[in-house]
Amino acid sequence: MKSTQASGTDPERRFSPETSRALADFLNFVRVEKRLAANTAQAYRRDLYRFAGTLTARGWGLLDVKRLQLQEYLGELTRAGMGERTVARHMATLRGFYRFLLQEKRMTEDPTLNLASPKIWKTLPKYLTVEEVERLLEAPDRAQPRGLRDGAMLDLLYASGLRVSELISLRVGNLQVEGPYAFLQVTGKGNKQRLSPVGQQALASVKTYLREARCKLLRGRTSPYLFVTGRGKPMTRQCFWQIISACGRRAGISRPLTPHLLRHSFATHLLEGGADLRSVQQMLGHADISTTQIYTHVVGSRLRQVYEQHHPRA
């Protein structure tokens, strides 16, 4: 599909006043009312401008679009070489946009109703075995301040299923301890808050880091952040990626390691242990349970493996 955006020009100038107003109102809604992250709001803007540009080029009205036209547009995105996840994101943007217009009474029908979603998660998310996780968590040299910090971060990541961005943005005050129970106050995507439980082993690891290592890394400086570098600065995403990769090598794990791999492992191991899907959804901070449901496929794949290996008539 040819791009409808001319180089060096403002694409909005080609839109009708009605279209420009609808786009601006929706983007303001997701930014202010839904409090979406800046990157997410920007992705919405790009998707909608591409869509509106296509409609304008074909003489279609934004508020007159029907389901068949949306299907044709999404089909073109696929034929243009976009991946399933990207097309699914475009669809989610259009769903949100037209539902907003319906709520605002600018439309009487939602053209995204019964719009078939592209299949995503064609490949199941990878995860570590329990034995691999244990080796990884034992890899940091906890005789050193940096090792105590690295171990606490890995323990917390696996114990709570955090995203790496959530982990590095934790502040000391986000850890809440009430008797034998501990929780993290986590700020997730779109600045949405949730409470995530912390297990006893992870809590002990974090307490040891706070007591014996954090002050040595700060060297007299102050910081509100829970995890800091050797220079007393907040931990960065890049630095933690290096930490988890180095610990993986020491643990003898040959495949590439990412923080998200521990998040996948957290969810998979919970479900394998009998946790219900809704609880896992809340702990992961997923807005939609369909995002969490992929882990049931992972568990199902694992069960089939066990069955085929051990059942005499598999």
Describe it.
- This protein is mostly helical.
- The protein has two domains: 11-103, DNA polymerase, domain 1, CATH 1.10.150; 130-310, hpI Integrase, Chain A, CATH 1.10.443.10.
- It has helices at residues 17-33, 38-58, 67-79, 84-103, 130-137, 145-160, 164-168, 200-212, 214-218, 237-250, 259-272, 277-284, 289-292, 294-310; strands at 175-178, 181-187, 193-198.
- A three-stranded antiparallel β-sheet has the order 1-2-3.
- A hairpin with a 5-residue loop joins strand 2 and strand 3.
| Order of strands, widest sheet | 1-2-3
3D shape = globular
By secondary-structure content and strand pairing, the structural class works out as: mainly alpha
Largest sheet: 3 strands, antiparallel
Number of strand segments:
3
Helical region count? 14
Q: Beta-strand percentage?
A: 5-15%
Topology record:
Layout: H1 17-33, H2 38-58, H3 67-79, H4 84-103, H5 130-137, H6 145-160, H7 164-168, E1 175-178, E2 181-187, E3 193-198, H8 200-212, H9 214-218, H10 237-250, H11 259-272, H12 277-284, H13 289-292, H14 294-310
Antiparallel strand pairs: 1-2, 2-3
What can be said about this structure in brief?
The protein is mainly alpha-helical and 314 residues long. It has 14 helices and three strands.
Core attributes:
mainly alpha, DNA polymerase, domain 1, hpI Integrase, Chain A, 3-stranded antiparallel β-sheet, 3 strands, 56% helix
